[in-house]
Structure formats: C-alpha cells, structure tokens
Amino acid sequence: xxxxxxxxxxxxxxxxxxxxxSVLHRLDPRAKLITTLCFILAVxxxxxxxxxxxxxxxxxxxxLIVLGRLPVGYILKKVLIAxxxxxxxxxxxxxxxxxxxxxxxxxxxxxxxxxxISILLRFVLTVSAALSLVALTGFNAVCQALIKLGVPRYFAxxxxxxxxxxxxxxxxxxxxxxxxxxxxxxxxxxxLSLFTAFAGQLLMRALDRAERIYMAMCCRGFDxxxxxxxxxxxxxxxxxxxxxxxxxxxxxxxxxxxxxxGGVLIGAW
Amino acid sequence: xxxxxxxxSPAVGIAMWAVSAGIIGYSxxxxxxxxxxxxxxxxxVLGAFIFAAQMINFSxxxxxxxxxxxxxxxxxxxxxxxxAFLVMASVLVIQALFFADGGLLALGCxxxxxxxxxxxxxxxxxxxxxxxxxxxxxxxxxxxxxxxxIALQLGAFSVVLETLLSGISALPFTAFTLxxxxxxxxxxxxxxxxxxxxxxxIWNARPEILSSAQGRQTQNKPGxxxxxxxxxxxxxxIGGVFSWFASAHPDGLEWAxxxxxxxxxxxxxxxxxxxxxxxxxxxxxxxDYGFKQTENDTVADTxxxxxxxxxxxxxxxxxxxxLTLILAMALGWGLRRRRGLA
Lengths: 269, 342
Description:
The structure holds two protein chains of two kinds.
Chain A: H1 2-18, H2 23-26, H3 29-44, H4 59-67, H5 72-82, H6 84-90, H7 92-96, E1 100-104, E2 107-110, H8 111-137, H9 139-148, H10 153-183, H11 192-219, H12 236-254, H13 257-268
Antiparallel strand pairs in A: 1-2
Helix pairs in contact in A: 1-8, 1-10, 3-8, 3-12, 4-8, 5-8, 9-10
Chain B: H1 10-34, H2 39-53, E1 58-59, E2 66-67, H3 72-79, H4 81-99, H5 107-131, H6 137-166, H7 173-205, H8 207-220, H9 224-248, H10 251-264, H11 270-285, H12 292-304, H13 306-341
Antiparallel strand pairs in B: 1-2
Helix pairs in contact in B: 1-4, 1-5, 1-9, 2-4, 3-4, 3-5, 4-5, 5-6, 6-7, 7-8, 10-11, 11-12, 11-13, 12-13
C-alpha cells in the first residue's frame, strides 16, 4: 500500500521539479531532448572495456542536475531503483570473461570485471541523463516536443491522455487496495481470483470514464487537435546549447582525456 | 525484461528505434483511418489502466512470490492490434522516462519486444484463430494463455538476440537462452491465466464491451501476409543498419583515433605514448574473438614486458579517471555553492 502511494507520488514529483525556473528549464524541450539522445548515443558507442574514457561524461548529467537545481539524492535513488536488470545481466561478465586484461602490481583484473564496471558506468550515465531530462522539462512539454519532431499526432495525443489519467486511476487503485487492506487480516498480495475482480472492476470503470471524457470533450468542440497557448520556439540559446554539448561529446568520444591526464600525472611523478 | 541502455550498442539501439518508429507510424495511420477521435481518450485511459493495474500485486499460487499484469494481450483484445500497440508503446515510454525502466536508447528494443509480438503475432495468429468469432469460455481461456506464452517467449528471445548482437554482455547464447526462456515460460503462463480471468470477468459482467471490440476487430485484423511483409522489411532495416555500423564503428575507427592522438602532440611524453600504444593493441585485438591466436600472443607479450607497458596504461587510466571524477565533483560543488550564495 505504501509502495503504491510512493509510485504515484514519484510521478508527481518529477512534474513538480519541472515547474522550477532555471536556465535549463527555459530551454526549448526539443533542444534538451536531442542533446540527451546524442549524449546517450555517445556513451553507449564506447567499446565494452571502456572505463576511464567514460568518466568525463559525468559532466553532462551533473551540469543538468546542478544548474537545473534538481535534488541529487532523489535522482540517485531513482537510478538505484532501476538498476537490477543491468546489474543482473552484467554480473555474468566477470564469471564468463576471465581473461586477464590488466595487472595493477600483484592484482590481476579480468576483462569481465572491467566490462562489468563499464556497464555500471554506462547505466548510471544514461539513466541519470534521461531522468534529468524529464525532471527539467515535464512530460507535457516532452510530448509537445515529440509532436513538433514529427511523431504521429495520434500517438502523442493519447500519450498526453495517458499521462493525465495515470494519476486518476492510480488514486482509484490506491483507494481500492486500502479498502481491501482495512477489511482483511493479511495485507500482503491478494489471490488470483480477487485480483481478477479488482482488475476487472478497474477496467470497467476506466472504459466508462473514457466514454464520459470523450463526450465531455465533444461538448467543448474537440476535433482531434490540442492547441497550445504558448508556442515553442527555438532561440539562439537553444542552438548554442545543442552545439556546445555536441562539440564536447565528440571531443570526449575521440580523445581519452583522463588517460592523458593520468599520463601527465605519472610523468610528473 | 526491460532492456537497458547500458547493455546495448548504438547499432542495435538505432536499428530497433527505426523499426519501432516505423511500426508506430504505420499503426497511428491505421488507427486514424479506421476510427475517429473517439479512440484517443479510450486509448489513453486504457494505458493508464494498464499502468495502474500493474501496481496491484497478486500472489502466484504455490510459489509464495507475487507478480503483476503485463497487459499487452488484454489491450489487443479490447482495442485491436494497432491501437493496442500504440498504447503498449506509451506505457513503455512512461516507464522509461519516469522510472528509468529500460533506457531511452533501448526504448526501441523494448517497444518491439513487448509490443510487436503480442499485438501483431500472438493476437492475430493465435488468439483470433483459437477464440475466433463465436467464442466459448474455454476457447477464450486457451487462446489467451497460449497467445501470452508465445508472445513472451518471442519477446524474451528478442532480448537474448539484442543483447548478443550488442556484445556488451559476455553471456554466451545458449546459457542466456536457457536462462531467459524458462523464466518467461512461467511468466507467460501466469500472464495468460490472468488475462483470461480478466477477460472472463468482463465477459460475465458486461459482455457488450467484448462483442463490440470483437466487431471492430473483424474489420481491422491484420492479414498474415502483411505481418510477414512487415517482419521482412524490419529485418532488412536491421540488417542494413548493422552492416553500415559494422564497417564504420568498431576497431578500425578506435585504432585510427588513438593513432592520431598518439602522433600529434603527445609524442614527447614517453609514458603516454607507450600507454597509448598499449591501448591501441588492446582495442584492436581483444574485441575480436576471431583472432584468438594473435590475442594470446599479445597477452603473453604484455605480461612479459609487464612493468614497462602495462602499468603505464592501467595506472594512467585509473589515476586519470579518478582525477576526472574529482574534478567533475568539485565543479558541481562549486557551481552549487555559487548558486547558493547568489
């Protein structure tokens, strides 16, 4: 029960964060979307043993978090919660790939461990960047950016509806589960037959609701388009933002700065 | 079974994005042609329903663990394949954006794995064939269970293939398949039973919902030919993108990059040069399992001349990486502090 409230609260919190005003919030959603996609592409394009070359890429999510005034702990917690699949698949690498790749004095490190660490780094980088994007932009703006970028209108529109009614239906589920928990002795997971009744009830209510919403919308002149008061416009800042980060990504992709730094460090030492 | 960005290569990610985007575009066009705006709120609310229903856990009999609904098949039964596919895609979009379940680049893979198989293969070819027009209770149950199993098996197998083609995980094909398929067989059976149960519940309580859905479906059921043509097309796209990347991306480029940076200005620094050369060797030889012979040679080589070459690379990489992280954190802290003062 607690868990459900948490999920619901979580979606809402991302929207609250998106309502803060900062330099990054004011950027055009398209600019942020494109830059973040390029960032993810750059990160995943490294070969499987890359570790040091990936570290400078922390710059991007970090700048987003700091300049966008996002709570670091909250983003990190979300990254952690999402980690099981990548960790589960990645953990097989050290077991299978045992060829020794690096020796640090007496310690021999196998390729598997290196690629596992590389997977973890990639995971933290890509996930934190994607989460920051939503927290800086808000879902409605992301959807508008999608429409502008050529995503089919029907798809984007129903995505907007979906997002709106997630809150309503989540509330309903939470009430149903609470009501059941208060009336039963074991508040753990329910049996299959009870679940069926729950889901079925919820489904029927959802269908009825969709019908009512559609009729209400028709009364208000809905014709398949949603019109926005504030039009999106690409300004110079947005172009600069994209180009600036693209240059940095390409530079970091081509030149392993940490390796060079480390070399200088050792050379001086 | 959400794929993560960390496990896929750009080639796989982009190819699957292209395929999924194509199918989304086609489905959106189909939905637009066949119905009026009536379906938009219905689709949105049903997406929210799937999302909300996934929050309810039920206990799985005999195991002590609990599971939740996947929902692809219920959507297909209620909405027909095209609209159901769009809704499934949006559920995955929300999960990717808000819960980081599967990353942005992996979104194409996830939409394909969890949407295409259930909506365009399992539903028309299995559920509709078995449950058909004038369906009986048993036929619906059998159809839902079988269709869910097939959809999840195909989806799990796609995860295996995508992971394998990406080459980030070291899991060998057989082991990974043996790991994924049985787990998803169990999940598929449960999913099928739950789907059948919910559909039966609706059938008993409000049969008109299902029969009206069934009526719509007879018009927009995709023909088997179209499905086959679509699959063929998507395999061409995947093949095309792969061959393009295969020649452009891997070792050659890496090697050239290091070579270029090694020659330019770092020449004077002896350690750096040597460490770069060592890196060159590694990046050029290790990822290719074809050259086992030479690979062994180089490994032996590096171990022989160990302190000179190898420690340069690893320590430099390590020190540089740590230094970069410290610099990055200092920068972040400094920015935050300045912001706090301002």
